[in-house]
Amino acid sequence: MTAPAPIPPRVLTVAGSDSGGGAGIQADLKTMLALGTHGMSVLTAVTAQNSLGVQGAWELPADAVRAQYRSVVDDIGVQAVKTGMLSSAALVETVAGLLAGTGAPVVVDPVGVSKHGDALLAAEALDSVRTKLLPVATVATPNLDEVTQLTGFTVTDEAGMRRAAEEILAFGPRWVVIKGGHLPGDAVDLLTDGDEEHWLRAPRHDNRHTHGTGCTLASAIACGLARGQYVPTAVRGAKEYVTGAIRAGFALGGGIGPVDHGWLARSAR
Question: Residue ranges of the alpha helices (H) in 170-256?
C-alpha cells in the first residue's frame, strides 16, 4: 500500500482580492504555495485593480466573512492566520473576534493604502484596528504610511522606526515589524517585541515592480509560524523570500508590476 501523503502546514489568509493578481488573496496564496504550505482563504472584499491602481472596491458582508472563516477553521483547521484588507470597522471587529477564539498565531498586515496610494481602510475603522485587531496579533507588519495612520507619528529615519515600534506595541501585538522600505538606502526593517531587537537589512534592488510586497512578507511570516518557527526565524526567512521576489519582479500592464512569487522554483531549475 502507498503511504498517505504528508499534510503540509495549513495557513489561512483573510484579505481582499486583487484582480490583477499581484497583491491580496492572490499574492498570499502564491506565497503559501511557494513556501510549501497549504493556503486557504477568506475573502473580505473584491477590487477592480491592475498595475495602474484600484478602480473600485466592494466589501463583503460580515456574515459572509464569518461563514467562510468558520467553514475552513471548523473542518480543516489552521496553523497560522494572516490578515490583510479589512476595510471597515465591522469587518475588523468580526475578524478580530474570530481570531481571538482560534488559538493559532496571527500575522496582521494593517493594510491602509495600496501601492498606488488608494485608500483601502475607512478612517473610522482605525480605532477598531488599534483596539480589537492589533491586540490579537502575534506579529504586526505596518509600513511607514500605516504607522502614521495608526499613531500620527511620521518616521524619517531608523531612530524613528524604534519609536514607531514602541507606539505599535502599545496597542498589544506580541511582536512588530516596522517596514522601512520607504526610507532611502538599504531596505531595512525592525523586528522587536520590546525586549529583543532585530534589524533586518537587504540591498535595495533597482526595480520599480514591487506590487504585493507587504502581502507577500506577511504571508511568508505566517508560513514560517505555521511550521513552528520562532518569530525572528520566521521573519528572517520571510525577508529573504520577499527580497528575492522583489529582485525578480517583472513588468505587467502600464504601471507597477508585481513581485515574482515563483522565483524560488525558477532559480532551482
Answer: 213-226, 231-247
Largest CA distance in the chain: 62
* 27 dihedral zone (left: phi>0; alpha: psi -120 to 50; beta): alpha
- Catalytic site residues? 179, 210, 212-215
Grid cell in block for residue 27: 499574492
Helices 24-34 and 213-226 pack at an angle, to 10 degrees, of 40
Write out the H or E segment, with its range, that includes residue 160: helix 158-169
* DSSP class of 149: H
Q: How many CB atoms lie within 10 A of CB 214?
A: 24
267: exposed, middle or buried (C-beta count within 10 Å: 0-12, 13-18, 19+)? exposed
pTM, two decimal places: 0.95
Q: Write down the mean pLDDT value for the chain.
A: 93
Angle between helix axes 231-247 and 213-226 (nearest 10 degrees) is 140
**Angle at which helices 158-169 and 144-151 cross, to 10°:** 50
**Calpha distance 142→218 (Å, rounded):** 10
Measured CA to CA, the distance from residue 101 to residue 205 in angstroms comes to: 41
Residue 16 has what pLDDT?
96
Q: What is the pLDDT of residues 71-101, one digit of tens each?
A: 999 999 999 999 999 989 999 999 999 999 9
